[in-house]
Specification:
Structural class: alpha+beta
Strand content: 15-25%
Mean pLDDT: 88
Number of strands: 6
Number of helices: 3
Radius of gyration: 14 Å
Strand order of the largest sheet: 1-2-3-4
Low-confidence stretches: 92-98
Order of helices and strands: HHEHEEEEE
Helix content: 10-25%
Distance between the termini: 22 Å
């Protein structure tokens, strides 16, 4: 039920209202589900709405979301079943972390 609102936020770049300094034209929506089967059900539901930008959505099973895995653990799925981390490990020459590009 939230997909149309986030789709519209993407269209008008509404995230800039909350983060005016951002240089990103898009954003990600992270769903932390109570267990893996619920995560997968939500992922399939989002995937069925191709016109509502399912590529924005990321899915995590709360049982895998720990202090050790939260940022760099391979626990985040996109709607295409790609597994990755919420934040990419920075290259040795970089000093800042970069957000995961789910698309």
């Amino acid at each position: 039920s939230k997909m149309p609102g986030f789709s519209e936020m993407l269209r008008i770049e509404g995230h800039r209202r909350f983060f005016p300094e951002t240089t990103f034209r898009d954003f990600s929506v992270v769903i932390i589900a109570p267990h893996a089967s619920r995560r997968d059900i939500l992922r399939q539901c989002v995937l069925r709405h191709a016109d509502e930008h399912p590529e924005l959505w990321l899915f995590v099973d709360v049982t895998e979301f720990t202090p050790e895995s939260a940022l760099f653990g391979k626990i985040v799925y996109d709607c295409d079943s790609e597994l990755g981390s919420l934040v990419n490990t920075p290259a040795s020459t970089q000093h800042e972390t970069t957000c995961r590009d789910a698309r």
